[in-house]
Amino acid sequence: MELEEHMRAIAASKIAIIVFSKSYPLSTCCLLQLEKIIECHETFGQIFLPIFYEIDPLDVRYQKDDFGKALEEAAHKSYSGEQMEHALSRWSRALTTAAGISGLDVRDFRHDAELVEKVVFRILELLDYEDLSNTQFPVGLDTRVEKVIECIENHSTKVCMIGIWGMAGSGKTTIAKAIYNRIYRPFIGKSFINIRQVWDRVDRRHVDLQENLLYGVLKSKPEVKSVGMGRTMIENGLSQKKLLIVLDDVNGFEQLENLCGNREWFGQGTVIIITTRDVHVLSRLKVDYVYKIDVMNENESLELFSWHAFRKAKPRKQFNELARNTVAYCRGLPLALEVLGSFLCDKTMEEWERVLPKAKVIPKLQVQKILRLNFDGLCDDMEKDIFLDVCCFFIGKDRGYVTEILNGCGLHADIGIRVLIERGLIKVEGNNKLQMHPLLREMGREIIRQSCPNEPEKRSRLWFQDDVQDVLKKNTGTEATQGLSLKLHLTSRDCFKARAFKKMKRLRLLQLDHVQLTGDYGYISKQLRWISWQGFRFEYVPNNFHMENVIAIDLKHSHLQLVWKQPQVVKWLKFLNLSHSKFLRETPDFSGLPSLEKLILKDCPSLCKVHQSIGDLRNLLLINLKDCTSLSNLPREVYKLKSLRTFILSGCFKIDILEEDIAQIKSLITLVAENTAVKQVPFSIVISKSIGYISLRGFEGLSTSIFPSIIRSWMSPTLNPQSFVSPFCMDMENNNWRDLAPFHSSLANLRSILVQGDTEFQLSNEVKTIVVEYGVNVTESRISKHHLRFSLIGVGSYNEFLNTLSNSVSEGLASRESCDISLPGDNHPYWLANVGEGHSVCFNVPQDCELKGMVLCVVYLSTPEIVATECLTSVLVVNYTKCTLHMHRHGRVISFNDEDWHAIMSNLGSGDKVEIFMTFGDGLLVKNTALYLICGESNDLEKEPVE
Prior knowledge:
Blueprint: H1 2-12, E1 15-20, H2 28-44, E2 47-52, H3 57-62, H4 65-78, H5 81-99, E3 104-105, H6 112-127, H7 141-154, E4 160-165, H8 172-183, E5 189-194, H9 195-199, H10 205-218, H11 227-238, E6 243-250, H12 257-260, E7 271-276, H13 279-285, E8 289-292, H14 298-310, H15 320-330, H16 334-344, H17 349-355, H18 368-376, H19 381-394, H20 399-408, H21 413-422, E9 427-428, E10 434-435, H22 438-451, E11 461-462, H23 465-474, E12 483-487, E13 495-497, E14 509-513, E15 516-518, E16 530-532, E17 552-554, E18 575-577, E19 598-600, E20 622-624, E21 646-648, E22 670-672, H24 683-687, E23 693-696, H25 707-715, H26 722-725, H27 732-735, H28 742-746, E24 752-756, H29 760-775, E25 787-796, H30 799-814, E26 831-837, E27 840-844, E28 851-862, E29 874-879, E30 884-889, H31 898-905, E31 913-919, E32 924-935
Parallel strand pairs: 1-2, 2-3, 4-7, 4-8, 5-6, 6-7, 11-12, 12-14, 13-15, 14-16, 16-17, 17-18, 18-19, 19-20, 20-21, 21-22, 22-23, 23-24
Antiparallel strand pairs: 9-10, 24-30, 25-28, 26-32, 27-31, 28-32, 29-30, 29-31
Helix pairs in contact: 1-2, 2-5, 4-5, 7-8, 10-11, 14-15, 14-16, 16-18, 18-22, 19-21, 19-22, 25-29
GO molecular function, one term: ADP binding
Organism: Phaseolus vulgaris
InterPro entries: Apaf_helical, Disease_R_plants, LRR_dom_sf, NB-ARC, P-loop_NTPase, TIR_dom, Toll_tir_struct_dom_sf, WHD_ROQ1-like
């Protein structure tokens, strides 16, 4: 009877803990309980924590030595014949399963008190007993929470779906968090996801939601390759678990159908709570109960407002009437009460009286009018102007670009943008682009519209297309306008008069995409700081178009043949972008552009001359001449540039030489010169102290260039690089190589090179000859004196697979009986395995999936004191299909970043035949190299190089 009670207790528990000791298998009762625990763990996801007390987990897993003998004795004592064999088999399986679960190995603890503390900490970590942060003042919350919990309890025998429906700002999230905190403890797993925050990321909406759900419940985040895979992972991983899931701020059924569209994906007793403003979402999902949130009554509203305004449940006596009037404006909307209360907190009676007349009744579902209080709370007009400019013109633009333009407007945007970010009004995405929540954007634009609702010409900024066209056609512009944006279709035939800008004296931001403007450009404001005019129709910019104060000029897809007929002085200009101007023949005279930082002339096929005055630009950071196919030479003055960091010449196939004087550009970090007519790579490029990345795909002179020497020097940095040069440089006299002593020291700065060979045969022979010459520095005869180890190197998206792979390789090496190595193969659903002998591995780029990342596994022999992470390392990616060689040098710590991954991917195409070589410093012998490709389902493998 006692055993049956134990079994029932085990089945009702959220977590089971077993302490394995040397005497554990002597108890039949313990073994039967272990069977029950494993059954509960596998059936409905019960948390299981094995503790190995003064015993090796491997002894438990394989029932070795005395532990195995004790197990056999227990079976002999309790059973006989076939029953004994059957029991022994069951218990062996249970022990093997238990030992394979991550637990605590406590053989090294100094005393039991320390052990108990560690176990308690681990249990708390597994149970994850931590409340969600919630409202400081839970006015009226308990009664609402109780109603929902009562409904959940009525549906406890099945998968229960509850909807919480209410308008924006009504307290849906607050109620959902309170319910979560009240009921989460009995559930095996739990997850609280703000759907809107994930959905707003746009890129991988559905799979990001699925990953969030799996991570929240399983506490590990497997990478979801596709929506279909995510649904399968949810069904397989969660179907036997009792879960609590809250999906907050849902606004469309499509956000739910791949998360919880089928109740059979979840275990019995699971509770799913959805909060939304759209009741139709809940009806489509067929939830069990919809709880509609009504606005707060008068007493609740006054109490909530008072807590935020006065830090107590009732208003101060002298503020009573003012407080009640303010509460009336909010109409029971909690968000409005909280915002207004906090806004008025600590203000004097006089300040209340000034503020309140500005407050308006807050209609339902118009949250932007509440959010305006955040705008009004900004410290000064400059911060407000920055916010409104970003609202109307700069969402999606680079933060640095916008900062420079608005600084030029006198707005101190360095500080102002940071303040807006800190206050949540602006956010910066990973690519440094400014973004804003749509509600905030609408709120900002509504502020401008409301300033003159019926007279758009009197507004500070014009962006609504009908309003802009109306103002320009009727010539009703005024001095109030500071910014104007009109984007027409490429085929539009609408034409406007420049005279329409005559009264817009304060215009500083102008965007006119594909707009035809005729007449005297002298009417356009002299205060312009930003001009964005795609499809500019003139052959040159009119001389009377005043640009003396402009910071950025963007005339992409223009009809320009010359920028200006006569040199112009635009002393504040920092950004000049004339990309895709098909008729542009030459650059402007740069002598009047002393502040220029970025010159972008991408895809200007008629460009044949770069003005020699470019050498006088002391602030120039970037030159992009990609695909300027008519450009055959560069002025020598370009090498005088002292601040240039990025130089892009790809696709300029008529440029036949890079002068050795390029070494004068001491600041150059990135050189991209793919598919040019370069015949000889100057030695000076390689010895530049600043250079970090060189890409020379399409370079024809690999066999006579310095690059084989670079490969050798990377592989054997202790040897004299001069000894490598002569076999590969066919014409030493003509090449006029100077002293090569600086060669080795300069390579410390060079991280990556991409070059192209003439033929696959030539490329293969040269690479393999060089690698073989250096690659075997430890002979087989010394193997017995060395240790077999492995190193994992990841690039791209690989983190979620590294632990799994590491464990698999470790097990393979631990169980080996000789120097033969068995590495994991394609038995994992998320990787494709390729294993090679020695220091290289070959593979073909998959044709039916998108590469997300890769992990290189290198198994090597070395002395005990040497490991791969302490040796100089090089990775060579040879693409035989494209005949390219991509080299990465990583010093003593092997690390790849996102730029490395994008650079690798830019040179890999679907079906390409590729070989990767790994080389280390002296003292290591590479036995095997394996490559694990982490894949998705799209075959979109080609990526643009970074510009």
